[in-house]
């Protein structure tokens, strides 16, 4: 897959089957669109093109609200990695700034889809909107496809067990419910985040459960509901099993400090300042406040048993 940052130097293709969208998470529904995109391109001998936007449009259109409320499933690097696995020929990353947000749907079609790419077929997901004030959609495109010189096709809503697959549904499963298995089913892979290991107060080491304190690399990344999770950790080139507590540490800090702490099983190396990737496998329990450190230690032993049972 060739990645193009911006449209300026993209050379129009002889034939292009195109789709566009934010594709946050590259989830099951997205994968169905991309599968159809590839199949359609193979039938008419065209190249596949995916147009995506960065930053997420809401960070430009509603910056204050988005900063507080919007958490993303994938950052740009993660999204690119996922799209590479989908067998797309070209990925065009368009900078979504104020100027771009004012482009009308007709300007987007004429300047980008026709002039810059030479689109011969456009494949879009259900309820896809584009252009200033989201004025463009399937009906508009279908009505004018002869004028534009390319065909338009809409993919119907994809569902799993009668629940619509969407980035919003995945965020809810992770953030509101801590249901990482549902998120995995919708995504087709374990949800993960990356962070840097930073120095903590070493309380975990004193009680026999040393932890890596994780600082998120991206402030907009989605974190799961507070609680204890079975996780895998990619560290020093190897995937290791572990358990993670995300929350306020009510027993040892009286709930003052919100942290992400990972106890990596059977690991004693020094990984301060290193980047690690944490993948969520199963939520073990909610965060609890114990009567003392001894009660906490006893529960941590139970949590480790529970985590290990997940990997059997």
UniProtKB/TrEMBL annotation:
A GO biological process of this protein is: FMN biosynthetic process
In short, the EC number is 2.7.1.26, 2.7.7.2
Reaction catalysis annotation:
riboflavin + ATP = FMN + ADP + H(+); FMN + ATP + H(+) = FAD + diphosphate
**Root EC class:** transferase
What residue ranges are annotated as transmembrane?
A: none
Any Pfam family: Flavokinase
- Keywords, A to Z? ATP-binding, FAD, Flavoprotein, FMN, Kinase, Multifunctional enzyme, Nucleotide-binding, Nucleotidyltransferase, Transferase
Which Gene Ontology terms cover its molecular function? ATP binding; FMN adenylyltransferase activity; riboflavin kinase activity
Q: Where is the Riboflavin kinase domain?
A: 186-312
What InterPro entries does the annotation carry?
A: FAD_synthase, Riboflavin_kinase, Riboflavin_kinase_bac, Riboflavin_kinase_bac/euk, Riboflavin_kinase_dom_sf, Rossmann-like_a/b/a_fold
According to its UniProt record, in which pathway does this protein act? Cofactor biosynthesis; FAD biosynthesis; FAD from FMN: step 1/1; Cofactor biosynthesis; FMN biosynthesis; FMN from riboflavin (ATP route): step 1/1
Q: Which Gene3D superfamilies match?
A: HUPs, Riboflavin kinase-like
The UniProt family comment states:
Belongs to the ribF family.
What does the UniProt record say this protein does?
Catalyzes the phosphorylation of riboflavin to FMN followed by the adenylation of FMN to FAD.
What name does the UniProt record give this protein? Riboflavin biosynthesis protein
